[in-house]
């Protein structure tokens, strides 16, 4: 049996850190994007016998190769501890004991933390893992098992504790911005890549989150609705202080008439239903805020070197029309006295889905390169930052109207390719001609998606003092794909 142990100090009290781990969303927030994807958390969290379903990445695959992994919770050996045991997965066995203790005055040397630690104001987290890759008969191969697993385990737990410290610090900042009150937050689209992170960040911060689901509700934190039939009970909306809408079918498809209708109706009809439910309520029962997704496609598909703030004029094209109608429906909430925000999201860089998920295998194979001429602007945002932005907008009463959710450093396609190639230690010179995306997506979708040229600035977020966790492209790519940035210097 191989053994791995990792310790770290987080500059927050034991009670706060342990309570954070007991809330829904903790596993989702703790999981590095490149290391594992949470399919379903255990419910209730940490309950003995409850199971979590994940897709864990094979070592060295940077999240490209993932396999199912199911773990079961058990009580730990002490008051502030718990155990996870693998019941199905790629290993012979896996038992992970999480232990939490108040950090003493000398505990800072045990691991990484988010600042100076004083006794009683910091928490020592110890992770002990006993595992086997190979059958017990192959006991002489423990050294090989450790050589295969320990670099990945070390990187995983460094990333986990870095995320934990950053989340605890950021959630304290949110309380400073919005006050200490715990909010009731209703989320549509909580099963998507962004929605899972938004829900997890808010629930681990102590807010009560319910999810709108298009089926019969099975749990107390679920609410049934059916936008296609116009079904949503207004009293379910009355429960919420904040409603967040992240719904809509994927746009990465050929823009056939039927696809266009689905893309538009899935956004406009569902948004209209939420606002109509608010309108049926007495003013005093309406939510305080309605936060609705949108996209930087609102500015069109090709604006060249023009810097696009929220004050820029709308653009042309199908997706610009979708965003305009989507935001128009969402803005009707403001007529009801409900604070309205439309979050115009850029290209979300995550190894879990979307643009980077498709590109990463090519780069790892040495077949990556810029799209088209490489001169097009790419306005990007990390998955961690888009979740933080939604959380900030949910609690900050000063933010209203359209808000650009992009990192402050847009790059051209050729720069993106060069950075990702250097991180992957692969060449990145094979440019993809325009005909490639056109064959896959059709001419219009290729022009508005793969060949988009938008230089967008997060003016309102910066004016509000929002601090990006990943404002630097190499750091953002490294965090989501598990690359090392040692020796990487942007061109």
CATH class of the largest domain: Alpha Beta
Count of discrete domains = 2
Described by the principal axes of the CA atoms, the overall outline is globular
Strand order in the sheet with the most strands:
1-7-6-5-4-3-2
**N-to-C span:** 46 Å
Radius of gyration: 23 Å
Poorly predicted parts: 108-118
CATH architectural grouping of the largest domain = 3-Layer(aba) Sandwich
Major pleated sheet: 7 strands, antiparallel
Features:
491 residues; alpha/beta; Alpha-D-Glucose-1,6-Bisphosphate, Chain A, domain 4; Rossmann fold; seven-stranded antiparallel sheet; 20 strands; NAD(P)-bd_dom_sf; TIGR01777 family oxidoreductase; SDR39U1; START-like_dom_sf
Note down, in words, how this protein is organized.
Residues 432-479 form the DUF1731 domain. Belongs to the NAD(P)-dependent epimerase/dehydratase family. SDR39U1 subfamily. This protein has a seven-stranded antiparallel beta sheet. It has two domains: 2-130, Alpha-D-Glucose-1,6-Bisphosphate, Chain A, domain 4; 181-481, NAD(P)-binding Rossmann-like Domain (Rossmann fold). Helix 6 links the parallel strand 11 and strand 12. Helix 4 (193-204) packs across helix 9 (383-395), helix 6 runs parallel beside helix 7 and helix 10 (413-424) packs across helix 14 (473-481). The radius of gyration is 23 Å and the shape is globular. The protein is of the alpha/beta class and 491 residues long. Helices cover 35% and strands 24% of the residues. Mean pLDDT is 93; it is low at 108-118.
